[in-house]
Amino acid sequence: MLINHPLLGPRDASEFVYKGDAALINRPDPDAPDALEQFIDYGYLRDNPAGAHRELWFHEQGDRSWLVVTRNTLTHEITSVELARDVARREGRSK
Amino acid sequence: MHDLIAISPLGATRPRIDSHGPVTLTEVTDRALASVAARLGHEAQANALVASLIGAQAPGPARMGGETLMAFWMGPDQWMLDAPIDSHEDLAERIKAEAKGSASVTDQTGAWCRFDLSGDGLADVFERLTNANTRAFTGGEAQRAAVEHMGCFLLCHSPRHISVIGPRSSAGSLHHALLTAIRSAH
Amino acid sequence: MTQVNRLAGGLIDRSRTISFRFDDKWMKGHPGDTLASALLANGVRLMGRSFKYHRPRGPLSAGSEEPNAIVELRDGARREPNTRATTAELFDGLTAQSQNRWPSLAFDALAINDRLSNFFAAGFYYKTFMWPAAFWEKLYEPIIRRAAGLGSLSLQADPDSYDKGYLHCDLLIIGAGPAGLAAALTAGESGLNVILADEDSLPGGRLNAETFGLGQQSGSDWAAEATERLAALPNVRLMTRTTVLGAFDHGIYGALERVSDHLPVPPEGKPRQILWRIYSRRAILAAGATERPIVFENNDRPGIMLAGSLRAYANRWAATPAPEIAVFTNNDDGHRTAQDLKAKGVTVAAVIDTRPDAPKGNGYEVIAGGTVTNTSGRLGLTKIEVTDARGTRRTIRCGALGVSGGWNPNVSLTCHQRGRPTWDADIHAFVPGGTLPEGMVVVGAANGRFSNHTALTSGADAAAQIATELGHSATRPDLPQAEDTPLALTPFWHVKGAKRAWVDQQNDVTAKDVKLAHQENFVSVEHLKRYTTLGMATDQGKTSNTAGLAIMAEVAGKSIPEVGTTMFRPPYTPTAIGAFAGRARGKDFRPTRKTLSHFWAEEQGAVFVEVGMWLRAQWFPRAGETHWRQSVDREVLQTRRSVGICDVTTLGKIDVQGADAAAFLNKIYCNAFAKLPVGRVRYGLMLREDGIAMDDGTAARLAEDHFVVTTTTANAVTVYRHMEFVRQCLCPDMDVQLISTTEAWAQYSVAGPNARKLLQKVVDPEFDISNEGFPYMACGEITVCGGLPARLFRISFSGELAYEIAVPTRYGDAMIRRLMEAGREFDVVAYGTEALGVMRIEKGHAAGNELNGTTTALNLGMGKIVSANKDSIGAVLSRREGLNAPDALRLVGLRPVDRSKPVPAGAHLMTRGSPVDAAHDQGYVTSACYSPNLGHSIALAFLKSGDTRMGEILRLVSPLTGVEHDVEVVSAHFVDPEGERLRA
Lengths: 95, 186, 984
What we know:
The complex is a heterotrimer.
Chain A: E1 2-5, E2 9-12, E3 17-21, H1 35-44, E4 52-58, E5 66-72, E6 78-83, H2 84-90
Antiparallel strand pairs in A: 1-2, 3-4, 4-5, 5-6
Chain B: E1 17-20, E2 23-28, E3 31-38, H1 43-54, E4 64-66, E5 70-75, E6 78-84, H2 85-88, H3 91-99, E7 103-107, E8 112-119, H4 122-126, E9 142-147, E10 150-158, E11 161-167, H5 171-185
Antiparallel strand pairs in B: 1-2, 2-8, 3-6, 3-7, 4-5, 5-6, 8-11, 9-10, 10-11
Chain C: E1 18-22, E2 25-29, H1 35-41, E3 48-49, E4 56-57, E5 70-73, E6 80-84, E7 94-98, H2 112-115, H3 124-128, H4 134-147, E8 162-174, H5 178-189, E9 194-197, E10 213-214, E11 217-218, H6 219-231, E12 236-239, E13 242-247, E14 252-258, E15 273-285, E16 289-291, E17 304-306, H7 307-315, E18 324-329, H8 333-343, E19 347-353, E20 366-368, E21 371-376, E22 383-387, E23 393-397, E24 400-404, E25 407-409, E26 418-419, E27 422-424, E28 429-431, E29 434-435, E30 440-442, H9 452-469, E31 502-504, E32 509-510, H10 511-519, H11 525-532, H12 545-556, H13 560-563, H14 577-581, E33 593-594, H15 598-603, E34 607-611, E35 614-619, H16 628-641, E36 644-647, E37 652-657, H17 661-668, E38 681-687, E39 693-703, E40 706-711, H18 716-730, E41 737-740, E42 745-751, H19 755-760, E43 779-784, E44 788-793, E45 802-808, H20 812-822, E46 829-830, H21 833-843, H22 875-878, E47 889-896, E48 908-911, E49 921-931, E50 936-944, E51 953-958, E52 963-970
Parallel strand pairs in C: 1-7, 8-9, 8-15, 9-12, 15-30, 17-24, 18-19, 18-24, 19-20, 33-35, 36-46
Antiparallel strand pairs in C: 1-2, 3-4, 5-6, 5-7, 10-11, 13-14, 14-15, 16-25, 21-22, 22-23, 26-29, 27-28, 31-32, 34-35, 36-42, 37-40, 37-41, 38-39, 39-40, 42-45, 43-44, 44-45, 47-50, 47-52, 48-49, 48-51, 49-50, 51-52
Helix pairs in contact in C: 5-6, 5-9, 7-8, 10-12, 16-21
C-alpha cells in the first residue's frame, strides 16, 4: 500500500507502524464520574467497519508523524491522510 | 583538553574508504550533528534560527540546504544541523545559546554514522537498498528511508554524491549492505 | 546422440555448439535453446514422471505454463528441483536430472501407482488415511511424502545470493509481445518513464514463435528492431528474464529478475536473482494468452503437446518432437501448426478437427468432425486412434500430436486484487473482469483480442491514453500492417467416454476425478479445486482450469460462467524462497548493533549475547574458567566486593525538552515527576492504557525544561513510539519535543563500594561527586579526563553504590579503556549481562521477565506509586476491581528449603499438599539464578497474596523438567534490603 503523507507524498506502507482505530485520539476525561466505563469502552470496544475506517499510522521510517488515514477495509482505497496532531487539535484535545 | 581518542563508527582511528567500479564509498567522521526542534508557538523563530545558521532558507520536507553549515529536514518544525566537527564540536551548545528558548536542541553527533557514495551509477546501487526514488534525485533531497531495515537519511548533494546517515551502532551492518549493493550493481 | 530432430532456421545461434547433460547422457545444443528445445532436438520427449501416478511425461508447452517437464537443474548445492525445462535457458555444461522416478526415468518402480489408479481417485487421501489418528505422523505421512515428492533438495545451503530492489515508473508494461512493444514505443516516445518487463530472454512474445509478417518484416525482426528503438530511449527500462509475480495495492508490483540463471554460476558479487518491488503510476498488462488443450483418453503421453508450442519449437528453436506429427484442434489456429511444421519439412500425418466444417488441408489430410479417442506408446507417443464424424475408428502413426482447444487470456495478474474474470461468449474464454488493480489496463491477447493487429493497436492506444492522462503529449509510432484474422473456434472441451483423460497433468487430475467430485457433492468450484487438487499445482492450472470448469459445468448441467472460475494468486510462477529472503540470511538476517565497548570486549574474549539487535557482552571468561558460572560468580562477587563496570549503552535514551516536559512525564509515567528537582533522577513506571505495566526506567532532570528518559533495551522503540503518540495525538498542545539519543552516548555503569574512588580518578576535579555533593539519585553534566563533556547519574541496578557515566559515543572506546585502567588499583572487573541479571535478582529489581505484559504496578509491589493525584496513561484502568483483587499476584523472593536445589524459572508454586494442577496454581517463578553471595539458588516469583505469605513453605513444581521440591517465600530483596549500600 501507499500512504499519501501530507508532507512527504506517497510513501510505502512498510515505512509505517499501524496502531488502529483513530478513535484512540479521543481519550476520555479521567475526571468524569463514569471515567472507568468510558475508559473500558475506549480501551476495548472498537468498531470493525467493512468500508471506510479512520486509523492511526506512525511514520517510523520517516518523519515520526502520527497520521490519521481513512482507508477502506474492503478495497484498501485511501481517501484521506492527515497529521494526527491536526486532527487531535480539531477534535478538541488542545488544553 | 582531554586526551581521549575518538574512534570511527567502523572502529578505526581513520575513516574507511572502499572503491568498486565507478563508485567510491567513504566513511565520514568529520561532521557534528545537532537536532533543532521548534518550541510550541516558536515555529517562526526556530525557522529563522535555522535559516540564519545555514545562511539559506530553512529546508522544507525532505530537503536540505546550506553549505559549510547545513541543515536537513527531519520532521514538522524539526531539523538536523550538520557542521564540520573541527570547528563545531560544540555545535549543540552554540545553537542552544542562539536559540534563546525558541527551540529544543540536542547533540546528535555520536548517534549517527555517515557513508558517502560518489561516482556514477549511484541510483543503480540505491535501487537495491531502499525504496527512495534516488534516480529522480537532482540534488538537495534529504529523505529518511529504510536501508536494509536500518533507518537512514539519504542526502543528495548531487546525483554523483549521496550521503547515507545511519544509526551509528549499526555502522558495520550498514557499511556491509552498501558495499554489497555496490558490488552487486557494478 | 545427435540432434536428430533439429530443423532448419530458428532464432538459435548455430555458430556455437554447447554441451549439456540430462540424467547420464551428454548432448549438444545451441545458445538460444531451452533445455526442453534442446532435448526435443536430440530426440528426447520423455522428461519426467508425473506427481501421483508416475506416468511418463514430456513437455506440454513451450513456456512458463508448463505442467509436466519439470526437472532438477544443476548439481551439488545449486541443485534446484522442479525447474521447468521449457524455461531453463541452455548454457554450456548445464546438467539436469529427471525427477519423480526410481531407479530410472524409463523404468520407474512407482509407476505401479498408475495400475492402482482406481484407488488414487479424488479424495483418496481423505478417504484412505483417516484412521487411526496416531498413524498419520508415523506411517501415512512418510509414505505419502516418499511417493508424491516433487524432486529433491540439495540439503545444502544455497551458495547464491539474492537482491531485493525497488523501482519507480510512470508506466509498467507487463509482457513484451506485440502489444507490450507497441505500448512501450508509444509511451517511451511520449516521454513517460517506462518499465517493460518480460519473463522471456528474448522480447517479442509470440512474434518469435509465429511466421506472421509485420509490414515487410518477419515478426521476430520487427520485435528485434522495436527492442533496439526502446534501448535507445533513456526513459525506458527493458527488463528481460523478469517475471511480474504479483499485483498489489496502489500500483505496486512484485517482479523477479533472473539475473544469472542463464549462466553456469553468477559472476562474483552478483546476485542470482533480484526481487523487485515496482511502484507504478499506471500499468499495462500485455501478458498474452495461453493455449489450452482438449481432454481425451491417454492425452498425457510424451509427444502430445499444445499445437502452438509445436510451432514455437519449430519456428523459434528449430526443433520438433518427432519427424511425423498430427494436430487435434477445434479452431483454425491448429491448422497453422500443420502449415508451419510442413514448411519446416516435418511430415503432417493428419489434422483432426472437431468441427464438421473444418477448413481444407493444404497438402495434408484433414479429418473434419473427428476426435482423438486414444493414444499409445509407453514412453512416448507412437500412434493415435481417431474416430471420424461417422464413428469409424482408425489408427494414425505419429510421434507428436499438437492439440489446440483455443486460447485463454492470461488474466492472472488481474485477479491479484479484486478482479474476477468474466466469461466472454464470443471467444469462449475468461477475460479480465471485476475491479482491476488500480491503474491497470489490459491490452491485446490478455484482453481476449487475439490478432496481431489488435495487439499492436490496443497496446499503442492504451499507452497514448495513459501518456495524455499523465500530462504528456502522446506520440504514436508508425505501426506495421499486421494480420487481423478473426477467431474461428467451436468449443470442444473433452472427448466423451474417456477413462484416463488428464485435465490437470501436473497434479494428475482426470476428467473422471472431476465427475466424481461432483457426484460426491463438491459442487462449488472452490470445493472442486481443493477436493481434486485441480489447478493447485505450481502451474496454478494455467493449462487445465478451463477444461476442468467445462467438465464440471457439463456434469452439473450448467454453463461455464454459472460454475464460476477459480482465482489466481501471486506468485505468477514458482519463485525461489531465497528471492524473498534477499540478503537477509544468516548473520545478515537483520542489522547488528554494537556498543562502543564492543571492540575492547572482543579483545577481552567476551562471550556475546543477542539482545534484540544488540550484541552485549554476556560474561568475560578468564584463563582457567571452564564454566560460565565461574566467570559470572567472579564478576558478581568482585563487583560487590570492590567495583565492576558494565556497558549499559543499550538502554533506550530519549531526550525530552520543552516548557511542558515535566507535565508530559507526569502523563506517561504513573508516578509523579512534576516536582523532581533539577539535578535529580527518579525511577519511573510506565503503564499501558489498560493499566498493565509497559516499561520502566529513569528520568533525569538536567534542567527545568530538559529531561533524559531511559527505557529498557528491548522496549526502546515501542516506548518512543508511544511517547510520540501521547505527544501528537493526546496532548497536541503541550510544548514538548522528543528525540532518541540512545546512540549519542556511550554509557557505563560503575558499581561497587569503590565506584566513587574509581570515578574520582576520571571525573575532572572541579566536580564534586562525594556522597554529600552528589548523593544517591543525583545527576549532572560534568567533564572527564580533562574536559570531555559527560553526564553522570547516580543510579543503581545492582544495589551497590553505583553511577552511570555517559560520554559522547565516539569516545566510548577510549572511556572503557580509561575506566578499566583507572580501576586497576581496585582490581576492577568488567561484568556482562549475566552478572547484571544475578545482581538485580539479588536486589529484587523487576526486569523484562516481571514486566511481561500481564502484570500491574500492584503485582510488582509498586501499587502505591501509581499517583491518585494526577492523570496518567493507565491510571484509570489500573483501578479496575479485577486488577486489585485481594489475592492478586505479588512479587516475592524464593529460596529452596534444601539449599542445594535449583529454582528453575517458569516453575509453578503450589500450596503443600494440594493437587498439582492449574486450578490450584498459586503463582510462578519469573527469574532465577544462583546467588554467589548467598551460596544457593534464589528466585523472583509472582505469588497470590504474596505480600502476606513471608516464611510460608510452598511446593515448587516444574512437570516439564521434573523438578518438585519445597521453597520458602522470602522478601525479594536478598541483598541489602535497607538500601544502605546505594546511599553509601
